[in-house]
Amino acid sequence: MKRTAREVDQVQGSWVEEHRRKRFSGSMNEAEQDFNHVMLSVIEDGQFSDHDHDTVINATCLTLIIGGSDSTVITLTWALCPLMNNPSTLKRAQDELDIKVGKHRQVDESDIKNLVYLQAIIKETLRLYPAAPLSVPREAMEDCTMAGFHIQAGTRLLVNLWKLYKNPRIWSDPLEFQPERFLTKHVDLDVRGQNFEFLPFGSGRRVCPGISFALEFLVCVEPSSYF
Ligand code: HEM
């Protein structure tokens, strides 16, 4: 693990060095101005007392890469499985794409608002196959009581999202893949941490910062495997 972490650090570090060289030599074109470039532009030495400039840039870039790749790819893959077993759901998704996008181009950002069934498929996938089934651990800052349990300050807590999503008191037929539930009974459920029965991206100050990107990516890329 440590060796792999060192290798990943080196790769990310070499990207920052390359960006720095190109910035100084003025040879960076617009297409190369990625997140490393933004970080180099906005972070100056001396801004952080605990860590140096490069550590902050490398850690921020790697957090986004690590947090954003596995979660999205897992969801994309799981979204396909139930469609293979539910031809009528696949047909409904294909029909929506034919009507709202047509057969001769790819889905783009402007289509997302019209692809309501596809959005429901993504939400149902996030419910049935959560990429982060235990979310991310929290630590109690002070003694408290939750659901009758005394929690001591410093205790690590996990929210069992998987169990929450299979609770029949909240979700009817919880083990069934039914995207329609997000167009009917659960149509008003938000995915951004406001409705505690559905928290695919967590909630509160550490909520996933990649929500918008992930949703757009999933709705735009998922259909490419439907035909
Ligand atoms: C389907 C895709 C994704 C899912 C299901 C997902 C889910 C989550 C969850 C449950 C958390 C924990 C939130 C909490 O503790 O309240 C989280 C955190 C995080 N996610 Fe995502 N995420 C996804 C995509 C992305 C993408 C695309 C990015 C970046 C481009 C990203 C970056 C992060 C980061 C950096 C954190 C840590 C935030 C912090 O601790 O302050 N995620 N994500």
The gist of it:
The chain has 227 residues and is mainly alpha-helical.
Helices and strands in order:
Elements: H1 2-25, H2 35-42, H3 53-85, H4 87-100, H5 116-128, E1 138-139, E2 144-146, E3 149-151, E4 156-157, H6 161-165, H7 211-221
Helix pairs in contact: 1-3, 3-5, 3-7
CATH class designation of the domain at 86-225: Mainly Alpha
Mean pLDDT, nearest integer? 93
The assigned structural class equals: mainly alpha
Percentage of residues in helical conformation: 40-55%
Number of helices: 7
Distance between the termini: 40 Å
Q: Please list the strands of the largest sheet in the order they lie side by side.
A: 1-4
Proper CATH architecture of the domain at 86-225: Orthogonal Bundle
Low-confidence stretches: none
Q: How many beta-strand runs?
A: 4
What's the CATH superfamily of the domain at 86-225, by name? Answer: Cytochrome P450
Entry keywords:
227 residues; mainly alpha; Cytochrome p450; two-stranded antiparallel ribbon; 7 helices; 48% helix; flat; binds protoporphyrin IX containing FE; heme
Structural commentary:
With 227 residues, this protein is mostly helical. The protein contains seven helices and four strands. The strands form two sheets. It has a two-stranded antiparallel sheet. Strands 2-3 form a two-stranded antiparallel ribbon. The longest helix is centred in the N-terminal third of the chain and has 33 residues, at 53-85. The protein starts with a helix and ends in a 6-residue tail after the last helix. Protoporphyrin IX containing FE binds at residues 63-64, 67-68, 71-72, 75, 131-132, 135-136, 200-204, 206-210, 213-214.
